[in-house]
Specification:
This protein has 229 residues and is an alpha+beta fold. The chain has helices spanning 13-23, 28-33, 43-60, 94-113, 122-139, 163-178, 192-198, and strands at residues 3-7, 62-68, 76-83, 146-154, 181-186, 201-211, 214-223.
Length: 229
C-alpha cells in the first residue's frame, strides 16, 4: 500500500465525512457532547455540518487526506484537519471574513432544514467552548501563533500502518521549518497521549468539561518546533 497525502478536494468530502464519523463514533467527547441514542443522533445532519466546515477549510485551513495510491476509487483512509497559525498582530482579511460568513450561513440553513442540531447538546457544546477558551488563553503564549490540530484520524481497521504519523508530519514538518509550535486537544488518554508524545507533543493541561454529573476530560498538548538536522 503506497500512501499519498494531499489536500482535500471537494470530491473527497463524502469519503472524508464517512471516515470521521466511523473513527469518532466511540470518541469520549463525541459521546459526551452528542445524544447518540438511536433516533437522537442524526447522521445526515452531522454530515451536512461537517461538509460545510470542510468546504470552508479547503481555502482557509490545512485539510489533508490519506489515500492508497493504487486505489482507483480514491477512498479516504485518513484525515488531517489543522487551523493555520495567526500572529497576534495579524488582522483577518476580507476574504476570510466573507468565508466565515458563508460558513455561518450554511450552518444556519442546516439548523433550519434539519429542524435542529441532530443530537448535539448545545449546553455541553458551549461548556466545552468556554473551557477551551480558558485553556488556550493560558497555553497560547507565543505571539507567532500555533498550528492547531483539530482532527487527525485514520479509518478504523487500518491503524498501525504509519498513516496517522504521515498526516501529522505533513504539518509538523512545516511548523519546524517556520519555527512554530503546534497544539492539539485529545479526549482519549490511552493510547493517544503516548502516540502524540512520540511525535514531540507534551501534555501541558487537563481540560475538564462537566455537566449534569457527566464529565469529559480533554488533554491539551503542545509541540515545540524541532531544529533542522
Amino acid at each position: 500500500m503506497g500512501i499519498v497525502i494531499k489536500p482535500i478536494e471537494p470530491t473527497d468530502i463524502p469519503s472524508v465525512v464517512d471516515c470521521i464519523q466511523l473513527a469518532f463514533a466511540d470518541d469520549p467527547y463525541h459521546q459526551w457532547a452528542f445524544d447518540t441514542r438511536p433516533g437522537k443522533f442524526n447522521k445526515e445532519r452531522n454530515f451536512a455540518s461537517l461538509k460545510a466546515k470542510i468546504e470552508w477549510g479547503v481555502s482557509n485551513a490545512l485539510f489533508y487526506v490519506a489515500k492508497d495510491a493504487d486505489d482507483k476509487d480514491g477512498k479516504v483512509l485518513g484525515v488531517s484537519m489543522w487551523m493555520k497559525p495567526r500572529n497576534v498582530n495579524e488582522q483577518q482579511t476580507w476574504n476570510e471574513w466573507i468565508d466565515e460568513y458563508i460558513l455561518w450561513f450554511k450552518q444556519g440553513w442546516n439548523l433550519v432544514r434539519f429542524q435542529g442540531r441532530g443530537g448535539l447538546n448545545t449546553k455541553r457544546y458551549w461548556i466545552w467552548k468556554h473551557e477551551q477558551a480558558i485553556a488556550q488563553s493560558d497555553i497560547w503564549t507565543d505571539p507567532e501563533g500555533y498550528y492547531f490540530c483539530n482532527i487527525v484520524t485514520v479509518r478504523p481497521g487500518i491503524q498501525g500502518k504509519g498513516i496517522g504519523r504521515q498526516l501529522f508530519e505533513i504539518v509538523t514538518s512545516k511548523a519546524d521549518e517556520e519555527g512554530r509550535k503546534c497544539y492539539l486537544e485529545s479526549s482519549k488518554e490511552t493510547p493517544n497521549i503516548a502516540i502524540y508524545e512520540k511525535m514531540g507533543f507534551k501534555l501541558v493541561r487537563n481540560m475538564v468539561c462537566e455537566e449534569g454529573g457527566d464529565k469529559c476530560d480533554l488533554f491539551c498538548m503542545v509541540r515545540e518546533p524541532r531544529p533542522k538536522p
